[in-house]
């Protein structure tokens, strides 16, 4: 009993009216519970703050990466732009190399006896000082390249090219004290070096037999399911009327015979430069909703009256009004 005298006693009433005693020990127990709850709350708060900071850093870094790294669309557009620039540059270089070789061949095949100094002077702009390209022995008469055309090119590496040039040369010389003229065709392969925008013939041009003609090729005539008689007659009349307008009339008349979907830019007429002479034949074939017509006919040159054969393929459609209209036209009449 003595031990309990110094212990402070707190009395309080519950809601039910009963009195209970809260000793100091009980109070300390409750304080301990509150302290534990506070620690748990502080821990959760720290974890939440850490997660928040991690998220903020993540979004910040992601934003920086997106800002400084172009998106897929931008990269694709850049690739396309670079490709176009490279294509233009390559095409320009090819044209320059072809023109350089072509001009060289013209000078190389044009000379006159007794004018060797002039000949070498003209070739200086194409060859190096150590080259013997201009050491041509001119025995008699003269020759001149009247037609020169660089028609193809082999690129050996980044700087070296072999250019093939066709030339027609007119010769003038004396045979048995009589002036004679004759022409001959020749082909040459010209080695060209291109570096930093400058070019030079870096070897002796070679005379070659570079025949690219396809001797064994056989034209395969167009064939298919023939259109019925009524369709062939209607489409054939439309084709004949259109061709007369195409050679002899202006665009307003030509446009009358074209379908709504036809590309008008591909039907620029000749406005009377030639006249339609006569139709030889029109063969019509049915391809689903399209009618293919192969027309063979003659035209006349208004300058000298010369008549020439023409053969074209015309795609024809039938309009909602029952009339036939031209959809497209091509010089290729094969399969």
TrEMBL record:
Record key words, sorted: Membrane, Transmembrane, Transmembrane helix
Chain segments carrying region Disordered: 1-35
Family annotation (Gene3D superfamilies): 3.10.450.540
Superkingdom per UniProt: Bacteria
InterPro entries from the UniProt entry: TcpC, TcpC_C
Protein name per Swiss-Prot or TrEMBL: Conjugal transfer protein
Ranges annotated as biased composition (Basic and acidic residues): 1-28
Transmembrane regions: 50-68
Organism (species): Waltera acetigignens
One Pfam family from the record: TpcC
């Amino acid at each position: 009993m003595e031990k309990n005298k110094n212990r402070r006693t707190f009395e309080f009433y519950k809601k039910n009216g009963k009195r209970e005693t809260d000793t100091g020990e009980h109070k300390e127990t409750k304080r301990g519970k509150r302290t534990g709850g506070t620690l748990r709350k502080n821990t959760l708060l720290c974890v939440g703050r850490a997660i928040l900071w991690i998220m903020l850093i993540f979004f910040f870094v992601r934003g920086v990466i997106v800002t400084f790294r172009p998106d897929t669309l931008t990269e694709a557009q850049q690739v396309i732009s670079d490709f176009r620039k490279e294509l233009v540059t390559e095409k320009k270089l090819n044209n320059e190399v072809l023109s350089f070789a072509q001009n060289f061949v013209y000078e190389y095949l044009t000379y006159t006896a007794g004018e060797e100094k002039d000949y070498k002077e003209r070739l200086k702009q194409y060859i190096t000082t150590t080259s013997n390209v201009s050491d041509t022995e001119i025995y008699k008469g003269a020759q001149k390249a009247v037609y020169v055309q660089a028609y193809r090119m082999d690129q050996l590496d980044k700087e070296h090219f072999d250019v093939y040039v066709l030339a027609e040369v007119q010769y003038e010389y004396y045979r048995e004290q009589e002036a004679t003229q004759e022409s001959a065709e020749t082909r040459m392969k010209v080695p060209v070096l291109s570096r930093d925008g400058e070019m030079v013939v870096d070897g002796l041009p070679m005379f070659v037999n570079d025949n690219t003609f396809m001797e064994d090729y056989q034209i395969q005539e167009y064939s298919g399911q023939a259109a019925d008689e009524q369709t062939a007659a209607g489409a054939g009349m439309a084709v004949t009327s259109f061709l007369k307008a195409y050679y002899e009339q202006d665009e307003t008349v030509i446009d009358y015979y074209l379908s709504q979907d036809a590309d008008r830019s591909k039907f620029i007429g000749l406005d009377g430069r030639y006249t339609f002479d006569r139709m030889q034949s029109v063969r019509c074939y049915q391809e689903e909703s399209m009618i293919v017509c192969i027309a063979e006919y003659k035209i006349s040159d208004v300058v000298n009256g010369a008549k020439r054969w023409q053969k074209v393929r015309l795609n024809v459609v039938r309009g909602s009004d029952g009339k036939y209209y031209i959809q497209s036209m091509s010089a290729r009449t094969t399969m």
